[in-house]
Amino acid sequence: MISLAGRRLLVTGGSRGIGRATALLAAQAGADVGVLYHTRRAEADTVARAIRAMGRRAFLGGGDLADADRVAQLMSEVRAAFGGLDGLVVNHGIWPATETSLARMAPERWRRTMAADLDSVFLVTRAALGLMDTGGRVVMVASTAAQRGEAFHADYAAAKGAMVALVKSLAVECAPGITVNAVAPGWVATEMTTTALAGDAGERAAAGIPLGRVASAEDVAGPILFLLSDLARHVTGEILNVNGGSVLCG
Asked: How far apart are CA 115 and CA 67, in angstroms?
């Protein structure tokens, strides 16, 4: 049994999907959990109530994580609520559903994706590291798009590719006191992918996965919990593939 008893965690994008599943699983494992959300206050509040119902402390904070001033304020509130952090799960971001070639991609879309999926990661991670001591854990949610690219979603793939490079850079910078890793999911059945996986598209996606099905949010939350735990104490700079075998790479 993985135990996170006494740990203080912060999960971004925690109102739904992988973030929600991770926050609840971490609380079940004994952690106090902070949940950050962008605009979905009601859903995030439901997660926080569930965490408290398990007897754990919960923190709830909202806003644009690409806003440096807002991130600084949120981290000040986290410090006041928890006194510090033992772990960070960077899960937030956007996946623009419209397929657009780079030749036709508007600069506004590129900048919007980079702000949501990369600039915000820099701001949150930088601030959270300031709240961690020796033994801290950082886990980022990357994507198979970072490993093999994603045609017509080059903005998303580029941001996730940069995240992978960031993980490897920070693993060295933060050693030996803090480990930094990522999970790289493939298709995951969440609210973000509902449209993309609708109808026959979901069946086609599953057909391309050796394990025969699209992952659930809980399928990804489990490996995240492992990387947050002492069982992964000698793992850093790793990109853990959670894709059912759809992308086989080291």
From this structure: 9
Let me know if 37 is a catalytic residue. no
Percent of the chain with pLDDT over 70: 92
Q: Whole-angstrom Cα distance, residue 197 to residue 190?
A: 10
Q: What number does CATH give the domain 8-242?
A: 3.40.50.720
**What is the C-alpha separation between 157 and 130, in angstroms, rounded?**
28
Whether the pLDDT of residue 38 is over 90: the answer is yes
For residues 32 and 9, the answer to whether their CB atoms sit within 8 Å is: yes
Residue 239 in tokens: 């990109």
Provide the whole-model pTM: 0.92
State the catalytic residue, choosing from 59, 82, 95, 156. Answer: 156
Q: How far is CA 165 from CA 92, 152, 177, 200, 203, in A?
A: 17, 22, 20, 34, 32
**Under a CB-based contact definition with an 8 Å cutoff, are residues 152 and 100 in contact?**
yes
